[in-house]
Design a protein that fits this description.
By secondary structure, the chain is an all-alpha fold. The protein has 2 domains: 2-155, no CATH class; 168-345, no CATH class. It is built from 16 helices and no strands. Helix 10 runs antiparallel to helix 11. The chain starts with a helix and ends in a 13-residue tail after the last helix.
């Protein structure tokens, strides 16, 4: 057993929740962002301005989402170059075989393939043959074997969440908004979760609301400590920057979380806000304005996942835009600020509690 542990340590194979469910998932979300998400945005822009070359560029970027996710996961797992490059084929196979639940299949299969590849890397004199062969054979074999059921399970779970949101928009609006919003601030990838579940429609709108509430909420209530730099880094970057401060004083999390519990049902019940763009947008919030952009692209050019669930392109009305702006920016700012005031008066939140860079 000791020799096995020494072998794992030498190969930098760390079997832990942090390595697989935080580091790998966060990297996977970046891979998705740099392929499917940015490709969707470019393609939508091209469609609106009538530029075929932009549409083509968007299609190319979207097509390699599987390899991009797998390579990103391998990078997070500290894979050697030979393993990393081989994961491109694994990601393509897992994403293709996984269907709508492809991202979840890529996450699981790329982790296994990468770790096996790392285990054999540089252990033989014919490493140039052995390492890519082991990585690809194991990864693609797993893709053929388990990606379809993984994809189906993820799709069914996503369908269940969306069905429940349609059936009980108030309760599910709160639950989806709060849970996905919390995941965004935690060192967990809310974007990867939404992508894995192919979360669109009303549930996607609630997820957007929750993520925006966390990001805009923290940006506003910490303004006195972090000023404009903090407003931009949290409002357009990520509220995850507050994680260290949350550990020190969890009460600073109350205002953004309660704000998400309010904006979620407002999104589902009042404004009927649907996010029918790429599912990853549901978990992005105001990061690069990807959440609102996803809603917009869903209006004019719904994603394949959304279309499969009955979504259709619409011409957005003034009410659609008002609802989006209120849910994504205005209400989170007002609600978080108002909720945080009594918390400061009670002494639960004090000056400096949300200072970034401590």
């Amino acid at each position: 057993m000791n020799k096995f542990k020494e072998f794992l340590k030498r190969k930098d194979i760390e079997i832990s929740a942090k390595r697989y469910f935080i580091d790998a998932m966060s990297a996977m979300a970046q891979g998705l962002f740099c392929s499917l998400l940015i490709g969707t945005i470019i393609k939508t822009l091209g469609s609106q301005v009538g530029a075929q070359f932009l549409i083509d560029i968007g299609n190319y970027a979207m097509a390699i989402s599987g390899p991009a996710m797998a390579v990103a996961i391998g990078y997070a797992l500290h894979a050697s170059p030979m393993v990393l490059f081989s994961l491109a084929a694994v990601g393509w196979a897992a994403n293709a075989e996984g269907g709508a639940g492809g991202p979840l299949a890529v996450l699981i299969i790329a982790i296994v393939a990468a770790e096996f590849g790392k285990a054999v890397s540089k252990e033989t004199k014919v490493d140039i043959l052995v390492t890519p062969a082991v990585t690809i054979l194991i990864g693609v074999a797993l893709a053929k074997l388990i990606a379809p059921p993984i994809g189906l399970a993820a799709m069914k779970l996503g369908d269940l969440i969306m069905w429940a949101t349609e059936l009980r928009p108030f309760v599910m609006g709160i639950l989806v908004s709060v849970i996905v919003g919390l995941c965004l601030t935690l060192p967990i990838s809310s974007a990867a979760i939404c992508a894995s579940l192919a979360l669109t429609g009303l549930a996607g709108g609630a997820a957007v609301a929750g993520c925006c509430a966390q990001m805009v909420g923290f940006a506003v209530i910490s303004f006195r400590e972090n000023r404009w730099g903090g407003l931009v880094s949290q409002g357009l970057g990520t509220s995850m920057l507050q994680m260290g401060n949350i550990v020190k004083n969890p009460r600073i999390w109350i205002a953004p979380t309660l704000a998400s519990a309010i904006t979620g049902p407002l999104a589902t019940c009042v404004f009927k806000l649907q996010m029918n763009g790429a599912a990853i947008n549901s978990g992005m919030g105001t990061c690069g304005l990807c959440g609102p952009i996803g809603v917009w692209t869903g209006w004019i050019s719904p994603s394949e996942a959304a279309i499969s669930r009955g979504a259709e392109a619409i011409a957005p009305t003034a009410m659609n835009w008002i609802g989006l702006i209120l849910i994504a920016i205005v209400l989170p700012a007002i609600l978080a600020y108002a909720i945080n005031l009594p918390l400061r008066k009670l002494g639960w939140v004090k000056d400096g509690d949300m200072k970034l860079g401590n």
